[in-house]
Amino acid sequence: MFTIANKPFHSRLLTGTGKFSRPNVMQDAIAASGSELVTLALKRVQMGETPDPTLQLLSSLPVTLLPNTAGAKTAEEAVYAAQLAQAALGTNWLKLEIHPDQRYLLPDPIETLKAAEKLVKLGFIVLPYCGADPVLCKRLEEAGCAAVMPLAAPIGSNRGLITREFIHIIVEQASVPVIVDAGIGCPSDATAAMEMGVDAVLVNTAIATARDPVVMAQAFKQAVITGRMAYEAGLATSSFTPPLQASASSPLTDFLGKTA
């Protein structure tokens, strides 16, 4: 169990809701994942007079909805979007996303910090999607963010933990939950992230675009549990550092029991 803003969550796997072929597939995948915190794009909230079937379905599930501001290009746009979500959904939880670059969808660190500072003052529980920048993550934490969400790799790329070394530093320095977001492409990526000591991972594309999203959601659920168990158990020190040398797991004796 881990907590964000004093709210406990049993599952350390967060899931997104984009790219699923059908709403019922998304529903079954969320159930299989065990996720209790689910993101959704604000465009679903702003469908106007036409009810969005995905939003309707999500509202009926026993999960905490985490609207995101994907599509915002500035702090001002993100704050406006957050206020729309709060009015429409009645929640002050928010995944803050600001990425003006549409090719790589990389988060804007300056606008993200500006928006986070304002949204925290307005009473939002802010979980910012950000680069794997230890200095920025610390600044976001100091601004009052409830968690930080550094990327593993560009959104939807399935490239895995490209930012591994920086995430190590972020985890070491953080006093709020660290949730690795974006780029997690397979269950082993999730396990590796959890073994590093992150508090949770967020997965969308790798589940939604799998041949069988429900089974893949189950695989990610188990991967996160396994990674966390390994972290808490304490990983053995790697011997693959120079000079490379084997380390016997049994006493060094000859066949007849004499010490070698």
From TrEMBL:
One GO term of the biological process aspect: thiamine diphosphate biosynthetic process
Pathway noted in the entry: Cofactor biosynthesis; thiamine diphosphate biosynthesis
EC number: 2.8.1.10
Presence of the UniProt keyword Cytoplasm in the record: yes
Cellular component aspect of the GO annotation: cytoplasm
Catalytic site positions: 95 (schiff-base intermediate with dxp)
Reaction(s) catalysed (UniProt annotation): [ThiS sulfur-carrier protein]-C-terminal-Gly-aminoethanethioate + 2-iminoacetate + 1-deoxy-D-xylulose 5-phosphate = [ThiS sulfur-carrier protein]-C-terminal Gly-Gly + 2-[(2R,5Z)-2-carboxy-4-methylthiazol-5(2H)-ylidene]ethyl phosphate + 2 H2O + H(+)
Principal EC category: transferase
Subcellular location: Cytoplasm
Residues covered by the Thiazole synthase ThiG domain: 3-251
Molecular function via GO: thiazole synthase activity
Organism superkingdom: Bacteria
Keyword terms of this UniProt record: Cytoplasm, Schiff base, Thiamine biosynthesis, Transferase
Positions of 1-deoxy-D-xylulose 5-phosphate binding: 156, 182-183, 204-205
Chief localization: cytoplasm
Family designation: Belongs to the ThiG family.
Function statement: Catalyzes the rearrangement of 1-deoxy-D-xylulose 5-phosphate (DXP) to produce the thiazole phosphate moiety of thiamine. Sulfur is provided by the thiocarboxylate moiety of the carrier protein ThiS. In vitro, sulfur can be provided by H(2)S.
Protein name: Thiazole synthase
The gene coding this protein: thiG
